[in-house]
Amino acid sequence: MVITVILAVSRRFFAPHTPHPTPHTPHPTPHNFALATDN
Predict the structure, then answer these.
(1) CA atoms of 12 and 6, how far apart (whole Å)
(2) What band does 10 get if pLDDT is binned at 50, 70 and 90?
(3) S-S: 34 plus which of 7, 10, 12, 29, CB 3.0-4.6 Å?
(4) Which residue windows does the record flag with biased composition (Pro residues) (predicted)?
């Protein structure tokens, strides 16, 4: 729950600063859940 929010916020904050494509995505599903929640 909290982790999802943190991931979503972190993603929003770091996306403009560090546009890394995939090397930064070793997570299986928690990140996808955060992405879905962010959208």
Answers:
(1) 10
(2) confident
(3) 7
(4) 18-29
Q: Under a CB-based contact definition with an 8 Å cutoff, are residues 7 and 31 in contact?
A: yes
pLDDT value at 5 more than 70 = yes
Sign of CA dihedral 39, 14, 34, 24: positive
Residues 6+ apart with CB under 8 A from 31: 7, 11, 25
Tokens of 20: 């890394």
Do 34 and 8 touch, CB atoms closer than 8 A? yes
